[in-house]
Every structure is written in structure tokens, then in C-alpha cells.
TrEMBL record:
It comes from the Bacteria. This is GMP synthase (Glutamine-hydrolysing). It holds the Pfam family GATase. Residues 49-192 form the Glutamine amidotransferase domain. One of its GO terms (cellular component) is cytosol. Gene3D superfamilies: 3.40.50.880.
Amino acid sequence: MKPFLLLATRAEDVPADEEYELFLRYTGLREDQLVRRRLEAEPLGRIDLDDWSGIFVGGGPFNASDPVEAKSAVQRRVEAEISGLLDEVIARDFPFFGACYGIGTVGAHEGAVIDGTYREPISVVEVTRTAAGAADPLLAELPDTFAAFVGHKEAITVLPSSATLLVRGEKCPVQMFRLGQNVYATQFHPELDVEGISTRIRAYAGHGYFAPGELDLTLDAVRRLPVTHTGTILAAFTRRYAR
């Protein structure tokens, strides 16, 4: 089997390593089958899509809608590299799955409107499959409504006409979409469990996701509902595209 590629952007080692472990767990892949590249640490370089079964992009501290002048040199490099990769991914309809920051990269590439209108605090929310989502193979094993971990400062306000909405939320309308048949993106985090999101809450305290003094309230918020279904999305993606 050709390996999958995970593109990561977290500079903090503990949440970065835990993210990789969670992707391994929920995809069912071994370390030699899921190769991680930490883009915050080194340039991506040339990627030959024919060498891979598919590509994942994890979450991270970058926001696609930040003003250009506010973005660090690293963020600008990472965004340019991912955008260049997406040129070929979308042209070929190559298997791709972007989570949280990944939805911003794909949305920005396709001209979506991305801003802070539908930001969500770190928490568990209920989201719902659309009719197209119910028919999509990645969501076939999920109920119509399911719980998911969220926490983001920006979201898609207007989807591009090329996108198919698969999952919607009450407070954040665009929770998952597809381009073509094989390019996917989620606003929620399908790779997380409660321990993983708790690690991120502690790691990113002071980064503007919640107010000072709200650490314990935020840790309680992610235990409000059990999250039991979202990991199956990553497993379904892996089964479908492993080659």
C-alpha cells in the first residue's frame, strides 16, 4: 500500500505528537503508512501525488482569514505551499481530507468567504448530515445527528459553488463539505478524543480561544456530550482510498 501523508502545522511538540497519534488511531494506519510532515518546522518540498494514497491536513493555530500583514513568514510560506499542492489535488480530484485549519486552506483556495461570523468556542456541538451527506460514503456509518469537537476563530460564511455541503451545524452552518468526489474538509475535529482536546486546551490557553480564568470551564465544556462517531470518518476515508 502507498502511504498517506499528514501535513501538520503545530509548533508545540506535545499537541503535535498527540495529533499524529490520534490520526494513527482513527485511520487504523501504522507509522510507516502515515508519514507526517511538520510544515511549521521545514518547507514542504515537491510532492508527487502518485507516491501517496491520500493527504490529510490537521488543525493548527493559523487562520486563513488573518490579514496578510498579520501573518508570520512561516504562515505565509505554509499557506503558499498548501495552496500550490491544492492546485494539483483539486485538478486531479485526488483524495484529500482537511480538518479545521484544513477547511480554511481548501475554502480559501476555492474562493469561499471566511471570517469570524461563525466562530465557535472550544466545546462539543451537535451537527447534522445533509441529504448529500447521508449519501456520502464517508458518512454512511454515522447517524443523522452526531456530536463533534469544535473550537475555531474563523469559519466559512459562504461556500463556493463548486462545493457540496455534507454536514451543517446550528451555530456554524458549514461543518463539512466535499469538492468533486474525493476532496473533503471538516470544521470539526474528527481526529480528537476528550483527552486529546484537553491537551490542546491546556497547550493553547492564552491564544484567544477562551478568556483568562476559563480553563476549567472549557475543560468541562468538552465533556458535555460523548463524542463517539467522528473517528469513523477518518477510518472510512482510509479504507476507501488505500491503494
